């Protein structure tokens, strides 16, 4: 339990976090695509607004160019320049009362995009000015424009070519109604009908008016913010950006916003993300981008062209996207909850499975331990009798390691030759589908023998024998016990010699052996004389002692193959294989003499008593055609009886 709980917690944690990661990683690209689509929409809208602004800008500039050209080609204007001497010192054109002057004044007054119109001769002298009440620029000494950029620029141009003074930081200011307004000067040369250069006409474009019309045209979306910067990063509008609201004309946008500027200045067209806004921009070069214009070529000086024009619009945030896509949110939530539910189910079920697996493993280990350490042997054999499995107990009996038996050992080879037949029969039964059992002797690696009984059955699949499963019980102890019990059953507990039952069982063997070898078999019966007296005089224990001593003495006089048995209380019998009756008589005599001369010392009432014992004997032969010892015993007893009757301590042979 100590190790499974953290495992469960870990699984639950995984169940909660993995779905989140999976769902997010699956749906993020979809939402991201949504976001991209929105951004594309914003980009398209910005492009559209920029297009409108660009048209307004180009229109304003083009109209100015066209007006400048139209004025330059007015015959009266050319005549004015040809027919009059240049205006001298103090003789300003604003006081010219001619019809031309009236016309031009009216034109300027009714077109607010222009702040002034100036007619300049070839020497730079101002010939005419409209409106008349416009003060001459303070930097123009004596109304001479000879040193101005527009005069110098336009003086070299061909007909219909235009000079555009560089706006931006070079914006020129002039006073109008007491305030300094920025202007952009547009100048074009004036030629007469003989194509002689006669002077220059200057038209000043009120930049404030232009930017105003830009704002009006571009603020289709009230959230749109306009950007117009010259090539040096000079700010060209009256209002600032969303991020830099304090910017005003001529300010250094490049310095104030270096990051966007580095991108703006290096690319012709594109978009940039500025925090929560998108800036769409493109370069505008009014020198080349003109249409519906009568102008030839357009020139300018300085390095402030082209301008960069742009518009910023707010970009959608993730929050706003999700707010709009509530169905997606619901779907996400549902998906996540379902995934977590599945995850939790998985965590619990796999935890349960883990526990079951652990239990199964534990049980398997227990079964394996029981199999290996069982007090009996287990083994499995394939159809060829090769060991495919054997438990530790049986391996230990045989003295082999696992790798020496599995797939290596033919089980029949460890069975003693005399029990191999029994094994073969039982194994054949098992292979045939019957249970088989055989008592065999196993030959161990160390040369020992082990008596076992093997009980086996076969494992079959689709009616085919696959392998046998055998239980091997060790019979050694049982055999020993049996032998012990048998020995006990056949032995006289007092004297340790065999009893009557054993004598009778062995007699059959000895009779048949004698028959086979054609050798005689004799029998002696012995009965201690007056044994009752010993009991009576010295006690039963003393009698027992006498019986034991006598047995020892008699045993010492016999051969290995002779069989001494106690057949009654104080009566003994000796079966003598390969012994003729005459030899048996001699043996009986030797025993009788030994007993007679052998004194037995016993303890009686604290004293040592020496007893003289004698015994009587009956001797007979065993007929080899008899199957039991019954008749021989009877004959011997007859002789014994006779010996008793005739005085004891004697031998009587009965034939
Ligand atoms: N101490 C002892 N006495 C036994 C045992 N078995 C039998 N006896 C005794 O042996 C005696 C046999 O006596 P009897 O059959 O009358 O014969 P006997 O006294 O030996 O006299 P004879 O055979 O005629 O010489 C009995 O008193 C039995 O009680 C025994 O295992 N131990």
TrEMBL record:
Subcellular location: Membrane
UniProt cross-references to InterPro entries, sorted A to Z: Diguanylate_Cyclase, GGDEF_dom, Nucleotide_cyclase, PAS, PAS-like_dom_sf, PAS_fold, Rev_trsase/Diguanyl_cyclase, Sensor-like_sf
Residue spans crossing the bilayer: 328-348
Single GO MF annotation: diguanylate cyclase activity
Name of the protein in question: diguanylate cyclase
Enzyme Commission number, as recorded: 2.7.7.65
Location of the PAS domain: 363-434
GGDEF domain location: 519-655
């Amino acid at each position: 339990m100590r190790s499974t709980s953290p495992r469960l917690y870990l699984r639950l944690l995984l169940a909660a976090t993995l779905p989140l990661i999976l769902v997010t990683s699956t749906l993020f690209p979809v939402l991201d695509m949504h976001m991209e689509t929105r951004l594309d929409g914003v980009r398209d809208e910005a492009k559209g607004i920029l297009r409108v602004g660009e048209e307004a800008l180009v229109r304003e500039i083009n109209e100015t160019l066209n007006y400048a050209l139209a004025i330059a080609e007015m015959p009266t204007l050319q005549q004015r320049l040809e027919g009059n001497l240049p205006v001298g010192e103090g003789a300003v054109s604003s006081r010219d009362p001619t019809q031309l002057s009236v016309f031009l004044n009216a034109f300027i007054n009714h077109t607010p995009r222009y702040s002034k119109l100036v007619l300049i001769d070839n020497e730079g002298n101002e010939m005419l000015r409209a409106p008349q009440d416009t003060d001459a620029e303070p930097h123009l000494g004596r109304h001479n424009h000879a040193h101005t950029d527009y005069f110098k620029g336009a003086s070299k141009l061909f007909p219909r070519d235009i000079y555009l003074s560089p706006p931006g930081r070079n914006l020129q200011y002039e006073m109008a109604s007491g305030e300094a307004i920025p202007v952009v000067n547009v100048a074009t040369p004036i030629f007469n009908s003989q194509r002689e250069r006669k002077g220059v006409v200057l038209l000043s474009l009120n930049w404030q008016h232009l930017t105003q019309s830009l704002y009006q045209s571009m603020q289709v979306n009230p959230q749109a913010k306009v950007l117009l910067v010259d090539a040096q990063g000079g700010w060209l509008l009256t209002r600032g950006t969303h991020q830099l609201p304090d910017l005003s004309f001529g300010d250094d946008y490049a310095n104030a916003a270096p990051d966007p500027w580095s991108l703006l200045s290096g690319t012709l067209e594109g978009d940039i993300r500025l925090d929560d806004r998108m800036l769409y921009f493109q370069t505008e070069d009014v020198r080349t981008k003109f249409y519906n214009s009568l102008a030839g070529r357009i020139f300018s000086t300085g390095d402030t062209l082209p301008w960069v024009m742009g518009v910023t619009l707010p970009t959608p945030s993730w929050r706003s996207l999700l707010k709009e896509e509530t169905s997606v949110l619901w779907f996400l939530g549902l998906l996540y909850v379902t995934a977590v539910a599945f995850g939790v189910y998985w965590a619990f079920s796999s935890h349960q499975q883990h526990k079951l697996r652990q239990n199964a493993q534990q049980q398997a280990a227990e079964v394996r331990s029981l199999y290996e350490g069982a007090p009996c042997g287990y083994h499995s054999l394939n159809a060829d009798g090769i060991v495919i499995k054997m438990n530790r107990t049986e391996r230990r009996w045989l003295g082999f390691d696992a790798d020496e038996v599995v797939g290596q050992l033919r089980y029949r080879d460890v069975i003693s030759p005399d029990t191999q037949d029994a094994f073969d029969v039982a194994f054949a039964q098992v292979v045939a589908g019957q249970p088989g059992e055989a008592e065999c002797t196993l030959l161990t690696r160390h040369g020992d023998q082990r008596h076992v009984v093997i009980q086996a059955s076969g494992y079959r699949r689709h009616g085919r024998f696959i392998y046998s499963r055998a239980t091997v019980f060790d019979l050694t102890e049982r055999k020993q016990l049996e032998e012990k019990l048998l020995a006990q059953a056949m032995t006289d507990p007092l004297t340790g010699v065999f009893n009557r039952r054993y004598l009778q069982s062995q007699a059959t063997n000895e009779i048949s052996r004698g028959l086979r070898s054609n050798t005689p078999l004799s029998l002696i019966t012995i009965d201690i004389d007056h044994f009752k007296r010993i009991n009576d005089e010295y006690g039963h224990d003393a009698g027992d002692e006498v019986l034991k001593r006598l047995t020892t003495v008699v045993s010492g006089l016999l051969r290995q193959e002779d069989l001494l048995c106690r057949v009654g209380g104080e009566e003994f019998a000796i079966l003598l294989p390969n012994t003729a009756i005459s030899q048996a008589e001699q043996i009986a005599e030797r025993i009788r003499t030994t007993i007679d001369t052998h004194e037995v010392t016993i303890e009686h009432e604290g004293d040592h008593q020496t007893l003289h014992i004698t015994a009587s004997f009956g001797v007979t032969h065993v007929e080899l055609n008899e199957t039991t010892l019954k008749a021989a015993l009877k004959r011997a007893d007859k002789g014994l009886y006779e010996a008793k009757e005739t005085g004891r301590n004697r031998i009587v042979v009965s034939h």
